[in-house]
Amino acid sequence: MTIENINKNNNTRNDYGKVVVLMGGWSAEREVSLNGGSAVVDALQKQDIDCVALDIKKSEVFSQISNCEYDIAFNMLHGRGGEDGIIQALLELKSKPYTGSDVSASAITMDKVKTKQLLEGVGLPTPSFAVITEESDLEYIASSLGLPLVVKPALEGSSFGMSIVEEVSEFYDAYVLASDFCSSVMAEAFIEGIEYTATILGDDVLPIIRLETPRKFYDYVAKYEATDTHYFCPAGLDNNEEEQLKNLALSAFKACGAIGWGRVDLFIDQDNKPWIIEINTVPGMTDHSLVPMSAAQAGINFETLVLMILDEALKKEKYAEVVNENQSN
Hints:
Layout: H1 3-6, H2 13-16, E1 19-24, H3 30-46, E2 51-56, H4 61-67, E3 72-75, H5 86-94, H6 103-110, H7 112-121, E4 129-132, H8 138-145, E5 149-153, E6 163-165, H9 171-181, E7 185-189, E8 193-201, E9 204-205, E10 209-212, H10 220-224, E11 230-232, H11 239-255, E12 261-269, E13 274-280, H12 290-297, H13 302-328
Parallel strand pairs: 1-2, 1-3
Antiparallel strand pairs: 4-7, 5-6, 5-7, 8-9, 8-10, 8-12, 10-11, 12-13
Helix pairs in contact: 3-13, 4-5
Family: Belongs to the D-alanine--D-alanine ligase family.
Enzyme class: ligase
Domain ATP-grasp: 116-311
């Protein structure tokens, strides 16, 4: 087998074997995961792919993975336990392919502080930030980063525990809210501008989406419940601007070691400068989610998208086989 043959992606229904869709979990994003996981199961069943849903529980996760018979795992677990390297480590022990990034990339991208440190280290633009503790001088941090600023848990997704601080007097309450979700809390410079998101699928970046919400920011309600959140795809960028933003998103994704599929959230500020905000290695797949929306603009329906994500997992396994074969020769 050669690298060229791997890239052809001529997988058939039989190549997938039995697919287990991991969903639920124990993070604050459990309901989002269940919704997205159910959508993936429905898509597989519509294509007569043998699949089973597995609702992951923290107290049973080791035995659930150990005792499950499958050929490939589709990971739809969000947040801690599912997107931070823990489930990936258990799946590695099974020596079976799974969707998304490996242990190290998952652990890095789940931790917003570590992600920003890495991005800064390789010279990619991300807003200034500070780690906050109970002993932090909040007035000094506010002065350094400027107001308004963003306060959020370092290890949560879907904007849980996130606040916009406009006055120093609001800072401590925002810290307390974020610390209810995670002991690691960060403050980040607020970027005044337009929010975009880029879907990564393999080595490709799908059409950019522009987001608009009348709320203070793109929070949980705006993402999953509101009817007045607006999405624009095409995003209204000219071809050069879109390509530059795509290249930046892919550079950030690869810098963190992420592979397979994911989403990179960005802003373009009032001076037309782009900023990387977050990297998601297990994006949502609900009816409100951005990845299926971007795929649809590229002419990829939901059922095909699910298979393409599985194809990336199989490709990852085949790459590993080629590397091991070359090393043994």
